[in-house]
Amino acid sequence: MYSMFLCFLFASFVLSTVDADTPANCSYEDIRGTWIFHVGSLKYDKTVQCTSVGPVKSVVKVNLLFPDVAVDQFGNKGFWTIIYNQGFEVVVHGRKYFAFSKYSGTLKNSTSYCDETMPGTTHDVIGREWGCFIGKKLAPSVEPKRTIIKLDKAFNPDQLYQRNVDFVAKINNVQKSWKAVHYPEYETMTMRDMVRRAGGVKSRVLGKPRVAPSSDNLKKLVAALPKNFDWRNRDGVDFVPKVRNQEACGSCYAFASVEMNEARLRIATNNTVQLTFSPQDVVECSEYSQGCDGGFPYLIGGKYAEDFGLVEESCRPYSSKPGKCVTKQSCARHYSTDYRYVGGYYGACNEESMMLALYKNGPIAVSFEVYNDFIHYKGGIYRHTKFADELNRFNPFDLTNHVVLLVGYGHDPVSGLKYWVVENSWGEGWGEDGFFRIIRGTDECGIESMAVEISPIF
Ligand SMILES: *[C@@H]1O[C@H](CO)[C@@H](O)[C@H](O)[C@H]1NC(C)=O
Ligand SMILES: *[C@@H]1O[C@H](CO)[C@@H](O)[C@H](O)[C@H]1NC(C)=O
Ligand SMILES: *[C@@H]1O[C@H](CO)[C@@H](O)[C@H](O)[C@H]1NC(C)=O
């Protein structure tokens, strides 16, 4: 009965690994409105540490309007998006402003102050004149929001994963679209390892955005696309980096982020530049993510790659352990730009815009919720089996969000099911040679709600 255990085991794990730094839970409506940014000195470079703002040197008033338009006090028009439920980014009058929303408390019992930010960073759009700022919302007002996560107390993160033959057999009994197996290597992993592998506790998104409605124009563009498409075989050429293994570190966000950059670089150069970037550098050096506890592709594949650049695997090989940043200054850095949520901003994603972005520009980083049936996937078109929920009301992976690389889409002529083709980072022995297919068009496990893409620089 491991499935019943999972729920009980998870609680103490969360409580013991995560203390005060709980991500906020702020929605689009919480952030939309009029803000004042108190900006400190702009004499820094990208190594600036924004723990406080220092003396305020300038004040920016900005209106964040529907859907993604930012207007400053001089009437300059720019862009804004929330970043998951964690904070937001504004680009206006030649400068970018990025901050996490303010919060206090613990993961289990936290308060979000969505009308204020933690100290954030600002720099001009070409990455100069760095400084710190704090945002305060003028109107409309937002009440502090308490987030309580109820977890069971008896859960042991050090317990080894336990084989459950019945659960696997039942998955295969109740449905035929995908096949479940038991992976013997799981028995050597603790529950803490298993949850990390599924995303890490700091990758969670409470309250996913709804999928955006499609437009006639989008539907017309999609109708002209091929029925089946896969970057592993575009006219006989494979543009997809090989499957890797993140092991027991919540670094999926780093793998999907670097792999998106690698794949798009291959595509942009007609496969003449085939680099492998270093997720370890991200795990150890990025201030935009939380090492082996999780992170987000908008901030890593996107913002980190634009602001700091990615180094090659040979510069900082993967060790699957968090640690101090020791990446050599002499290593070459590779940049990308124009990072964006598919659809334009957070909350604007849907199946059609993902198909177009994938086809036109290359693989995209997608997030989805891992359930305890998914870890047994061996092949076929995955869709979450409802009975698994009935067996386990609490899903230990509930609090994480797994990030993976979307590389194709298709349509199964026998079952009539539409699917996505996705590269996982659980090694080549998992799933369909390291890949999986998941049902398309129904936002299965949230996979159509928050895709991210970038443009490589070469
Ligand atoms: C959450 O924390 C607040 C303030 O620290 C406290 O007043 C409240 O009782 C706590 N709620 C729960 C359910 O623990
Ligand atoms: C987070 O916020 C969203 C929307 O504001 C809400 O639907 C969701 O229930 C919140 N999550 C928790 C755990 O409170
Ligand atoms: C891309 O590379 C292939 C060889 O892999 C070559 O046949 C093709 O002509 C190249 N395309 C362009 C536009 O250079």
UniProtKB/TrEMBL annotation:
Q: Its quaternary structure?
A: Tetramer of heterotrimers consisting of exclusion domain, heavy- and light chains.
Q: Which PROSITE patterns match?
A: THIOL_PROTEASE_CYS
Q: What is the lineage of its organism?
A: Eukaryota, Metazoa, Spiralia, Lophotrochozoa, Annelida
Under the heading Gene3D superfamilies, the entry gives:
Cathepsin C, exclusion domain, Cysteine proteinases
The similarity annotation says: Belongs to the peptidase C1 family.
Q: Which Pfam families match?
A: CathepsinC_exc, Peptidase_C1
UniProt key word Protease: yes
What the protein does?
A: Thiol protease. Has dipeptidylpeptidase activity. Active against a broad range of dipeptide substrates composed of both polar and hydrophobic amino acids. Proline cannot occupy the P1 position and arginine cannot occupy the P2 position of the substrate. Can act as both an exopeptidase and endopeptidase. Activates serine proteases such as elastase, cathepsin G and granzymes A and B.
Q: Which residues form the signal peptide?
A: 1-20
All residue ranges annotated as the Peptidase C1A papain C-terminal domain in the record: 225-455
Tell me which Gene Ontology terms the entry assigns under biological process.
proteolysis
Per UniProt, the keywords (alphabetical) are: Hydrolase, Protease, Signal, Thiol protease
Spell out the protein name for this chain. Answer: Dipeptidyl peptidase 1
Q: Which GO terms describe its molecular function?
A: cysteine-type peptidase activity
